[in-house]
Amino acid sequence: MAYTAKIGPSILSSDLSQLGGECERMMECGADYLHLDVMDGHFVPNITFGHPMVECLRRCIGPDPFFDMHMMVSRPEQWVKPMAAAGANQYTFHLEATTNPGNLIKEIRESGMKVGLAIKPGTTVEELAPWAGQIDMALVMTVEPGFGGQKFMEDMMPKVSWLRGQFPSLDIEVDGGVGPDSIHRCAEAGANMIVSGSAVVSSDDPRSVIALLKNVVIEAIQKRSLDR
Ligand code: DX5
Ligand code: ZN
């Protein structure tokens, strides 16, 4: 089985005035990567930050941490080159935001980044499927994108199970309301990249939460490989 368990804290719910320190803290607590939420106030009703912030974070934290850019923006095409130059590792765009996913995938690859493709709760997984062979990661949103701290949508899990059945080695990420209460559902369905915002960042003991989330996913992956 090609995929492994990875936990990527979303720093959206952290103290944004201390973002560099918060990113460092998450890596020290065992994060496998950082999930950075870019919002433009148009694709979603909220604004966060853009590539200048990513450039500063990269400078602050060094070359190693993997930045998964969750691009909740209209016209995602326009930020591919600036994000690559700023030090992003993966460019995860929304299928709903573009009319030409094939071309965007190509541009992201040519910029040297990995490709993630995200779908909102209202988008079917069959719409994503034609692109699954060309991407590195599929992101199944488990809340409506725009805000941290929302309730996990368990009814998104059939999408994850379907994808895992069809694409056994694809990285599948879940994002939104994921924490100790919902991780079992995600892991059983076949997700292996776990975004967790408030459950990790607001915890008194982020290291333990990250370890717990990771262990649940590792166990599910081991069980899946034994069942095969
Ligand atoms: C929501 C963002 C998420 C969010 C996750 O639009 O994409 O990454 O910050 O935060 P929690 O885990 O608190 O839902
Ligand atoms: Zn996100």
TrEMBL record:
Q: Kinase: is it a keyword of this entry?
A: no
Question: Which residues of this UniProt protein bind substrate?
Answer: 10, 70, 146-149, 177, 197-198
Q: What is its EC number?
A: 5.1.3.1
List the GO biological process terms. carbohydrate metabolic process; pentose-phosphate shunt
Q: Which GO terms describe its molecular function?
A: D-ribulose-phosphate 3-epimerase activity; metal ion binding
Reaction catalysed by this chain? D-ribulose 5-phosphate = D-xylulose 5-phosphate
Residues at the catalytic site: 37 (proton acceptor), 175 (proton donor)
Q: Which CDD domains match?
A: RPE
Q: Please, which domain of life does this record's source organism belong to?
A: Eukaryota
Q: Which Pfam families match?
A: Ribul_P_3_epim
Top enzyme class, one word, equals isomerase
Protein's UniProt keywords contain Ribonucleoprotein: no
Keyword terms: Carbohydrate metabolism, Cobalt, Iron, Isomerase, Manganese, Metal-binding, Zinc
Identify the cofactor(s): Mn(2+); a divalent metal cation; Co(2+); Fe(2+)
Q: What binding details are noted for the cofactor?
A: Binds 1 divalent metal cation per subunit.
**Residues reported to bind a divalent metal cation:** 35, 37, 70, 175
Note the InterPro entries from the entry. Answer: Aldolase_TIM, Ribul_P_3_epim, Ribul_P_3_epim-like, RibuloseP-bd_barrel
Q: How does it assemble?
A: Homodimer.
Q: Which family does the similarity line name? A: Belongs to the ribulose-phosphate 3-epimerase family.
Biological role stated in the UniProt entry: Catalyzes the reversible epimerization of D-ribulose 5-phosphate to D-xylulose 5-phosphate.
Name it.
Answer: Ribulose-phosphate 3-epimerase
Q: Which organism is it from?
A: Carassius auratus
